[in-house]
From TrEMBL:
Gene giving rise to this polypeptide: LOC116375292
One Pfam family it belongs to: Ig-like
Record keyword Iron present: no
Composition skew (Low complexity), residue ranges: 738-759
Protein name according to UniProt: Zona pellucida protein AX 4
Annotated ZP domain residues: 606-786
C-alpha cells in the first residue's frame, strides 16, 4: 500500500456512507470519560474498515462528517495500527445534553459495514460527570478544531458582576432578537459586527451554557477570520472573536481569543520533535502578568507522570521562549508500521502527542490549554541488526537478528542453499527463538546452527580453518503478508588448524607411519593413493593399523600394495610408500609424506605402467652351477644388466626381446623366458657339450581396460601397474612370492607387481565400502582392489 495512503488513513480518515439494531455486541465498543471529552472506540475487526458515527438528539440524527465534526466538536479517526476507530466528543459538542456544566449525556449511532458491504447500526449512549473542575478559561486544540470556554466572572470588563452576566445570558436565551453581536479582529481591518447566526454560517459556533460561554473554530483554510502568526519561531493559528451585548446601561464584552500552535513536529534522525511557544502571546492580550505555571505531556489523550516519561525516553525542555518535546523513534506509546518497497524494509513511526499547559496571571486566574497533535516520521529505510554471538568452543553458530517491529514475522530461513520453514528447522536440529528486544517494543530472532549441519568449511590460508554460513531470512510484513528477504553471512575462524602430520620410520622389511591425534583431525581424510585408509583397506592389503585415543600407527610390509620402487640392483633398492591428508569435499591434498627406505634385494619383479619389466632372480635354482652371465631372453641379444654368482637382473620393454603377448577376455599377458647356456655330457659321449635351457618364465598381466592407448595409438601406457609372476622350472623347491609395484603413480586403482614360483596371480577383488566411527581420525573405504 502506498505510504501516503496509509499515513492519511492513520492520522485522519473519516467516512460516512441501513439494517438498524439496538443490541451492541459485548466488548466491541468502549466508552471512556476523559477530562474534557468522551472517548468512544470500536474495534475494526468488528466494525469493518469504514465505520461511521451519527450524533443523536431530540431534533434527529446528525451524520458526523469531517466538516460537521470540526464545527460541532467531534474528532473521528480510523487508526489501522492499533486496529480501532475512535470518536472524541467535546463536553460542549453540539448534540450533548449539558446539565449545569457538570453532567454530560451523549447519544450516537455506530454504523458498521462488513465484508459483504452489509450495514448494521448500533446505539451508543454514555453519561460523563465532570472529572476535573473547570478553569476560568480553557483552550482545547483538537486535531480538527480549536475551542475556548470562559466563565461568567471573566467577561473581559472590569467590574462586571455575575448578575449582569446571568442577565445577559438569559436575554440571549430568551430573546427572539438577541442583542449579541460578534466582531472578529483581524490585522489591518476594521471590526465588522455580525450576528452569531451569521458567524455560524462561516463555520464558527458560539454556545452559551448555564455558566460558560463557548467558542469553536475550524482550522484554516476553513477559518476565514483566522490568521497565522509566528511566535518565537513557531507558527500559531489565532482567531480573535469579541462577543458584545448591550443590556440597558451595561455593555458586556467578552474576549474569546483562541490560539493553538500548528507545529506538526519533525524527525531529527533520532526521534520526533515538537515545539510551541512558552507563552502564547495572543492569549496574553488584555491580561497582566500571565506566566507559565505548569507543563505536562502524554500520549493518546492521557498525561503521563515524569517517571514514566523518563523511562520511555521522552524529554521536555522548557526555555524562556519555547517548549520542546522529544520522543525517540520507536519509544513506547507510539505506533510503528513496516513496509516493503523493492525488497527494502521501510518503516514509519506515529505518536499521538497530548500536551497540557497551565498559565496564571497576577490575580491567580488560571488558563488551561490542552492540545492533541499526531506526529509521524517520514518513510524510513530500516537496517536490521545482525550480531554474530557464536562461541567457538560450543561449535554452534549463534546469530542474532534484531530491530524487528511487532508486525514483522520470520517464516523461513535458507542456510547455504538449504531452505527450512520454521517447523522444518526445529525438526532438523536447528533452533530458532523469538526474543523481546530490551527496552523497546521490538523483537529479535536467535538462530542456532551446529557447525556439522549445513556449514561450509574453508581453509583460506595455512593453519586457518573457517566455517561460513550464508543466511537468507524470509520475513513477512503483517497483516498484508508482504515478503521481505534479508541476507546475512557469518564466519567462525579457528587458528592453528593443520592437517594430520605423519612421521615415517624404516624397518628391515616394512615402513612404519605414526600420527599423533589433534582436535581437528576429523576434518581430513587419510588416504593411500586414491583410497581412504580404513581398517578394511588395511586388512585387505596386509597393513597393520592401530588407532587409539592418542595416535594412529600404520605398519606397511615391504611389497604391499602402494609401494613404488627405484634404483633396483642386485644388492639393494629403494621402496617408497606415500600417505596423504586431503579434504573430503574437494579431495584437495593438504599434506603428504613419502617415505623411501633402502631394502636388500632378493628376488623382485616390477611391471611398470610404461611397459618395462625389471626382474631379479636366481637362475641356479633351476640349474645348479649355471653361469648367470650366460643368460639371455627369447631374443638372445637381450642380456642381463647385472649378474653375480647366482642371480641376474634384466630390464626390458614388453614389446622387445621376443616377448610373447596373449589377449584374454579381461587381461593382456606378456611373457618372456630367461635362458641359460650350460655344459652337459651324455653318458655315451665322453666330450661335454653346451646346451640352452629355459630356466625362468617372466610374466606380466595387465587389465585390458587399462591399455586403451596401446590399441588406439600403439603406445604402451597403462593406467595401473601390471601383476608380475616369476615361474622357475625347479620341481623340488619353491620360494615365497612377493609383490612389488611400479614406480609410477597412477590415476586409477593400482594393481601391484608380484614375484612368485610356479603360480600366477589374478586381479584383486573389489570390496564394499565400510565406514567405521571417526573417533580419532576420519577413515572411510571406497571400492579398491585387494
Amino acid at each position: 500500500m502506498d505510504f501516503g495512503i496509509w499515513l492519511g488513513v492513520f492520522v485522519l480518515l473519516s467516512v460516512w456512507p441501513s439494517v438498524r439494531c439496538s443490541d451492541l455486541p459485548r466488548g466491541a465498543i468502549e466508552t471512556v470519560c476523559r477530562d474534557r471529552y468522551l472517548l468512544v472506540t470500536t474495534q475494526l475487526s468488528f466494525a469493518g474498515n469504514k465505520p461511521r458515527f451519527e450524533a443523536v438528539d431530540a431534533d434527529g440524527v446528525h451524520p458526523i462528517t469531517k466538516q460537521y465534526g470540526s464545527e460541532c466538536g467531534y474528532m473521528f479517526s480510523i487508526l489501522p495500527l492499533p486496529g480501532h476507530a475512535e470518536l472524541r466528543a467535546s463536553y460542549f459538542s453540539c448534540h450533548t445534553d449539558n446539565q449545569d456544566d457538570e453532567v454530560f449525556t451523549f447519544s450516537f449511532n455506530l454504523i458498521t459495514i462488513d465484508a459483504n458491504r452489509v450495514e448494521a447500526t448500533y446505539s451508543v449512549t454514555a453519561t460523563c460527570s465532570l472529572p476535573l473542575p473547570w478553569s476560568p478559561r480553557e483552550v482545547s486544540c483538537e486535531e480538527n478544531y480549536m475551542e475556548v470556554s470562559v466563565r461568567g466572572e471573566v467577561s473581559g470588563l472590569p467590574g462586571t458582576k455575575a448578575d449582569d452576566w446571568t442577565a445577559a445570558l438569559a436575554t440571549a436565551h430568551s430573546s427572539a432578537t438577541s442583542t449579541w453581536q460578534v466582531m472578529f479582529q483581524q490585522e489591518g481591518q476594521q471590526l465588522t459586527p455580525m450576528s452569531p447566526s451569521e458567524a455560524r454560517e462561516l463555520g464558527y459556533v458560539f454556545y452559551l451554557t448555564q455558566g460558560r460561554l463557548v467558542f469553536r473554530s475550524p482550522y484554516m483554510p476553513g477559518s476565514v477570520m483566522g490568521s497565522v502568526t509566528m511566535v518565537n519561531g513557531t507558527l500559531v493559528e489565532v482567531v480573535y472573536p469579541i462577543l458584545v451585548s448591550r443590556q440597558r446601561w451595561v455593555v458586556i464584552m467578552v474576549n474569546l481569543v483562541v490560539a493553538c500552535s500548528t507545529d506538526e513536529g519533525m524527525y531529527d534522525g533520532a526521534g520526533l520533535v515538537w515545539q510551541t511557544p512558552t507563552l502564547l502571546s495572543p492569549l496574553v492580550s488584555g491580561l497582566s502578568g500571565l506566566e507559565s505555571f505548569k507543563i505536562s505531556m502524554g500520549v493518546d489523550g492521557q498525561l503521563l507522570d515524569e517517571p514514566i516519561t523518563a523511562e520511555r525516553g521522552y524529554s521536555l525542555d522548557i526555555s524562556d521562549t519555547t517548549v520542546q518535546i522529544s520522543i525517540p523513534f520507536n519509544a513506547a506509546g507510539g505506533y510503528r508500521k513496516s513496509f516493503v518497497m523493492g525488497n527494502m524494509y521501510h518503516e514509519f513511526y506515529v505518536v499521538r502527542l497530548y500536551y497540557e499547559h497551565i498559565f496564571m496571571d497576577d490575580s491567580g486566574v488560571e488558563t488551561r490549554l490542552r492540545l492533541h497533535r499526531p506526529m509521524n516520521t517520514p518513510l524510513l529505510i530500516q537496517h536490521l541488526s545482525i550480531i554474530n554471538q557464536t562461541v567457538l568452543k560450543d561449535r554452534v553458530f549463534t546469530v542474532y537478528l534484531g530491530n524487528l517491529s511487532y508486525d514483522v514475522d520470520l517464516v523461513a530461513v535458507n542456510l547455504n542453499g538449504h531452505k527450512f520453514t520454521m517447523l522444518e528447522a526445529n525438526k532438523s536440529g536447528l533452533v530458532i527463538t523469538m526474543v523481546p528486544q530490551p527496552n523497546s517494543t521490538l523483537h529479535a530472532y536467535i538462530l542456532r546452527v551446529p557447525f556439522d549441519a549445513v556449514i561450509h568449511k574453508l581453509y583460506p590460508t595455512e593453519g586457518l580453518l573457517e566455517y561460513s554460513l550464508d543466511i537468507n531470512y524470509t520475513l513477512v510484513i503483517l497483516p498484508q503478508a508482504e515478503p521481505y528477504f534479508y541476507l546475512a553471512s557469518v564466519v567462525a575462524q579457528f587458528n592453528d588448524v593443520f592437517p594430520p602430520v605423519f612421521k615415517g620410520v624404516c624397518n628391515e622389511k616394512s615402513i612404519r607411519f605414526q600420527m599423533d591425534h589433534k582436535p581437528f583431525d576429523y576434518l581430513w581424510e587419510v588416504v593411500v593413493g586414491p583410497h581412504i585408509l580404513t581398517t578394511n583397506l588395511a586388512a585387505k592389503r596386509g597393513y597393520i593399523m592401530r588407532n587409539d585415543s592418542k595416535s594412529l600407527t600404520l605398519d606397511v610390509p615391504l611389497f604391499s600394495v602402494g609401494y613404488t620402487y627405484k634404483d633396483i640392483n642386485l644388492k639393494q633398492f629403494y621402496g617408497s610408500f606415500e600417505i596423504h591428508s586431503r579434504l573430503p569435499k574437494t579431495l584437495e591434498v593438504k599434506s603428504s609424506l613419502a617415505k623411501a627406505c633402502l631394502f636388500q634385494t632378493t628376488e623382485v619383479i616390477v611391471c611398470s605402467t610404461e611397459g618395462v619389466v625389471t626382474v631379479v632372480t636366481d637362475v641356479t635354482l633351476a640349474i645348479p652351477g649355471a653361469e648367470p652371465n650366460g643368460t639371455f631372453l627369447l631374443d638372445s641379444t637381450c642380456r642381463p644388466q647385472e649378474t653375480d654368482d647366482t642371480r641376474v637382473l634384466f630390464s626390458f620393454g614388453l614389446h622387445t626381446c621376443g616377448t610373447r603377448v596373449q589377449v584374454h577376455h579381461q587381461h593382456v599377458t606378456y611373457e618372456n623366458d630367461i635362458n641359460v647356456e650350460h655344459k652337459s655330457q651324455s653318458v655315451n659321449a665322453p666330450v661335454k657339450s653346451r646346451d640352452t635351457a629355459s630356466v625362468v618364465t617372466v610374466r606380466c598381466v595387465y587389465p585390458l581396460s587399462d591399455l586403451y592407448k596401446l590399441f588406439a595409438y600403439w603406445r604402451f601406457e597403462a593406467d595401473s601397474p601390471g601383476v608380475g609372476t616369476i615361474l622357475t622350472r625347479v620341481p623340488v623347491k619353491t620360494f615365497q612370492p612377493t609383490f612389488p609395484p611400479t614406480t609410477l603413480t597412477t590415476t586409477r586403482r593400482p594393481l601391484t607387481s608380484t614375484t612368485t614360483s610356479n603360480t600366477g596371480l589374478s586381479p584383486g577383488r573389489q570390496m564394499p565400502g565400510i565406514h567405521p566411527r571417526a573417533k580419532y581420525v576420519s577413515l572411510q573405504l571406497a571400492n579398491e582392489p585387494t
